[in-house]
């Protein structure tokens, strides 16, 4: 049995209702034969909360497994409760335990509210960093996919003034290695082509608009190519994402969060997928936040969460095929 665990997110946000809607959709897809019968979806969260927020989809809870994690305090739609910041981490820890001991192959995450977790006394900058720390790996890479694009990030949640210092030789070497390896292992690409953005406008204009391209990015690309990674650049970000140009690549590596993600979200918002590369298991998530103003209204769109589940299944399948090819080689 292949198993995906879905953490249901901030209880005051849209995560619980989207998770139940996704469970109903998943059951329908499996019933129609579009999801293999040996794939199981497990929701991780408070069972009563899911039943309350599920609305017309709540009946789907009878057909999927729920790993019950109790709320710390009762939750109301749209109203954050600091005590439930710990509840959110409880759900993540339960999911991590399931992939760690082999009971599941992937974690799919509904959105969380970083502020309330920090207010609960836990330093938390995001799912990506939390999962990295708990997995004990040196580096992970955030990549979003959607609208025919894959955009990975060299740096993630940093103030803009901190980005140049964070774009180092070591960082780029690690990111390019992880990106290439997981495009092969998780996406089945035999020879992935990676476009690398410059940091500065016009990729530095030959050093006239900054020297990071010359001193850091170009040497990193040269080292990657010497190691068999098809990385090209540095390319000006404003022209890289022209459709005819970006179509030549399997993924783009942006130097900072708002360099690449606005383009991808314009192309796919509401149906994009956030993927963490470099973990020992598959992890996908939505491309949006908790939407406290929509919580409990029944108006939230489950499209991104459904795409996150589909992508996780595809990544599990590609990984199994890659492992099988390696065993037979």
Automatic annotation (TrEMBL):
Cofactor annotation remark: Binds 1 divalent metal cation per subunit. Can use ions such as Zn(2+), Mg(2+) or Co(2+).
InterPro entries given in the database record: PdxA, PdxA_fam
Entry binding sites for substrate: 127-128, 265, 274, 283
SUPFAM superfamilies xrefs: Isocitrate/Isopropylmalate dehydrogenase-like
Compartment(s) where it occurs, according to its Swiss-Prot or TrEMBL record: Cytoplasm
Keywords: Cobalt, Cytoplasm, Magnesium, Metal-binding, NAD, NADP, Oxidoreductase, Pyridoxine biosynthesis, Zinc
Reaction it catalyzes: 4-(phosphooxy)-L-threonine + NAD(+) = 3-amino-2-oxopropyl phosphate + CO2 + NADH
Cross-referenced Pfam families: PdxA
Job of this protein: Catalyzes the NAD(P)-dependent oxidation of 4-(phosphooxy)-L-threonine (HTP) into 2-amino-3-oxo-4-(phosphooxy)butyric acid which spontaneously decarboxylates to form 3-amino-2-oxopropyl phosphate (AHAP).
Subunit structure: Homodimer.
Protein name as catalogued: 4-hydroxythreonine-4-phosphate dehydrogenase
């Amino acid at each position: 049995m292949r198993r995906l665990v879905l953490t249901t997110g901030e209880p005051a946000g849209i995560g619980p209702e989207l998770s139940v809607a996704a469970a109903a959709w998943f059951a329908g897809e499996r019933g129609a034969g579009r999801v293999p019968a040996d794939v199981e979806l497990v929701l991780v969260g408070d069972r009563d909360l899911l039943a309350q927020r599920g609305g017309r989809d709540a009946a789907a809870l009878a057909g999927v497994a729920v790993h019950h994690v109790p709320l710390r305090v009762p939750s109301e739609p749209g109203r954050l409760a600091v005590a439930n910041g710990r509840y959110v981490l409880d759900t993540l820890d339960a999911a991590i335990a399931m992939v760690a001991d082999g009971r599941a192959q992937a974690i799919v995450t509904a959105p969380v509210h970083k502020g309330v977790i920090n207010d609960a006394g836990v330093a938390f900058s995001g799912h990506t960093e939390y999962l990295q720390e708990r997995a004990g790996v040196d580096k992970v890479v955030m990549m979003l996919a959607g609208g025919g694009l894959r955009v990975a990030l060299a740096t993630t949640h940093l103030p803009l003034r901190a980005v140049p210092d964070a774009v180092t030789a070591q960082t780029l070497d690690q990111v390019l290695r992880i990106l290439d390896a997981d495009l092969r292992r998780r996406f089945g690409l035999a020879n992935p082509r990676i476009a690398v953005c410059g940091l500065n406008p016009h990729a530095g204009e030959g050093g006239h608009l900054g020297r990071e391209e010359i001193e850091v990015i170009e040497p990193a690309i040269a080292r990657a190519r010497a190691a068999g990674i098809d990385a090209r650049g540095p390319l000006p970000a404003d022209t890289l994402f022209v459709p005819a140009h970006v179509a030549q690549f399997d993924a783009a590596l942006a130097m900072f969060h708002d360099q690449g993600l606005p383009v991808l979200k314009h192309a796919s918002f509401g149906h994009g997928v956030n993927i963490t590369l470099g973990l020992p298991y598959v992890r996908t998530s939505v491309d949006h936040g908790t939407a406290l103003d929509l919580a409990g209204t029944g108006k939230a769109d489950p499209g991104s969460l459904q795409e996150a589940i589909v992508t996780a299944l595809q990544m599990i399948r590609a990984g199994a095929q890659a492992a099988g090819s390696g065993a037979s080689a």
